[in-house]
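Q: Got a minute? One more chain.
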Amino acid sequence: MTTTDLIIIGAGPGGYRAAEYAAKNGLQVVVIEGRHVGGTCLNEGCIPTKAFARNAEVMKSLANADQFGFDNLHYDFDFQRVVERKNQVIETLRSGVETLLSQPGITLVKEEAAFVDAKTVQTTSGETFTAPNIIIATGSEPKSPPFKVSDSNIACDSSELLDATTLPRHLCIVGAGVIGMEFASIFNAFGCQVTVVEFLKECLPNLDSDIAKRLRKSLEKQGVEFFMQSAVTAVTSEGVTFERKGKSTTIEADKVLIAVGRKPVLPKGIETTGVAIDKTGIIVDDNMQTDIFGLYAIGDVNGRQMLAHAATMQGLRAVNHILGRPDNIRLDIMPAAIFTSPEAACVGKSEDECKAEETPYECHKGYYRANGKALAMGETEGIVKLLTDAKGRIIGCHILGAHAADMVQEVAALMNRDATIDQLRQITHIHPTLEEILQDL
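A: Always. Here it is, folded:
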């Protein structure tokens, strides 16, 4: 049996960053990963999706090139080269993570882990490790659909669609969350017919409803067809059958992406630890510690916020707690982005939340069409909504438009310092930039 200071199960964004940070602060760390390092984000999530999104962005620019004086453009779209570029991006970043995990103080074990007890883990080969502290960072996987899938050849999850080598003629997407909306935007740009079927009244339920509606309408103008408030009953070789307003409809498609959410992946043997688990995942406190002393769970597996950067910051918090070191990490302020075209991003409360909670607020709006850089870029579709409380303190921001994620990041930084809208207005912004929209609110 090998004794170490810290065992981390999972080498995704939460696990590998926690390992790096712990090693730099003097801990001996064993990282156990049964699959590729980098986790879902790098291998079959954020990174490959964004590689595809970049290709889609280029295609959209070509399609609109006439407004910049380019006429009669001709090009051939080679999807195989798109896939090859995506795979190269993944390989490059995966190699970087493996290099990071080879630094002094870190031992990477490329095997699956199983708990023996709350302090002991055994790998596939039978090697046993023990440590006073263990961080579970095993991530999540696609949820099983609540309807019958009778043709596994037509149905796929996001990982399988990212591995496709040919484009579907008609892609039907079940679910209008972040994954569904990003794939709808990407494959529409690639020239596929795209249909989205969603049970709820509006897409992206965690986004401000005004922003979500505007995004859906924008994608509709680009050719994506939406069926909202529709309950899927079956996926067959013919396509997707759903009930809507008492009527049954079948959408024919040669590929169906099932994007109905994700669920935590619990490590083998977790029951031996006696740790508390509910339907969202492993239960943790604000230090990411479970009800078992020295046992932590970060990222998707605790179900708090299924975002790669949330996993990273939760990992840093867990290591700080192990080290007995206080920090100023604000896990309650977690920006997020949807890399559609146009892009959307948010941080903090939405108008919907403020109304539901009866929280006094003021909404400040700005529009891309009034911004010089947006006009010069040809990106005039967009809106910024900044919410402040009764004292003018910034409590939320939701944006639709070019570089929305970059702009929300500025607001997130200000929210981490409890800044007011008056303080934002007094910060000099480069001219011309999209961020001036924030300054002019």
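A: The two ends are 61 Å apart (CA to CA).
Q: Perfect, thanks.
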